[in-house]
Known about the structure:
Elements: E1 5-8, H1 23-34, E2 38-42, H2 53-56, E3 62-65, E4 70-73, E5 76-80, H3 85-97, E6 101-105, E7 110-111, H4 114-117, H5 121-130, E8 134-135, E9 148-152, H6 158-165, E10 169-175, E11 178-183, H7 188-199, E12 206-210, H8 216-221, E13 224-227, H9 233-238, E14 241-242, H10 250-257
Parallel strand pairs: 1-2, 1-12, 2-3, 7-8, 12-13, 13-14
Antiparallel strand pairs: 3-4, 4-5, 6-7, 6-9, 9-11, 10-11
Helix pairs in contact: 1-10
Amino acid sequence: MNKKLIFFDIDGTLWGHDRIVPESTKEGIKKAQKNGHICMINTGRCRSFVRDRDLLGIGFDGIITGCSTMIEYNGETLFYHVIDNDVIEYAINTSRSFSFRPILEGRYNLYYDDDEFGRDPFGIFIREEMGDDVLPIEENWNKWEVSKMSCAVDDGHIEECYEKLKDNFDFMVHNSSVIELVPKGFHKGVGVKKACELLNIPIEDTVCFGDSANDIEMFEAVNTGVAMGNSADVIKDMASFVTTDFDKDGIYLGLEKLGII
């Protein structure tokens, strides 16, 4: 079998809400690597927000973060896209004009202002996860290093805000209260194609595992897309096949079915 380049989403694929990676998943990935295949995370999370020791302890060969705005391989940064701070400043001011609460996402830090989040559960979660690596937006004005953004949305008006920001960003609407602002032209599929170019692996030898609508472009880019059993219907419909749920040995069984392990 040719060397495969295998991409894994995180949430709903490698782990669930408890953020515990099943032992069978760890075993499957290690076996795939032992058999000469390359295993990479491909996530919408920015790099600073991918830090869980158990997750990284699996020993992935590479990590694609921030909807393909950063690509690492063997601990080396191969590609990194930083948004111009003038664009970020405009996005902050525009999103705030619609009463959105911005979160800036970068390589080393997340940025948000405490007076906008207070005891908001999402803000608390980020603070608990990131600690001192969460910095205030205002105190670091125009000194940010950012590759994408998110916004907490309280009162709608998403379409109106998008009209003002669409020249520089694509919107990913997760639900009525959270949106992501991704640099124009970036999505998970971009990272697949870029990684193939950088590692000199043909797209015909690519595989991905995912579960949700934000994995659509990744599934479109790879040769073989494996949907978790717990996936959204849109992902199941476009998958090469559907494995079991992430917590029912889904990744291990998927790799086994493909003959990778």
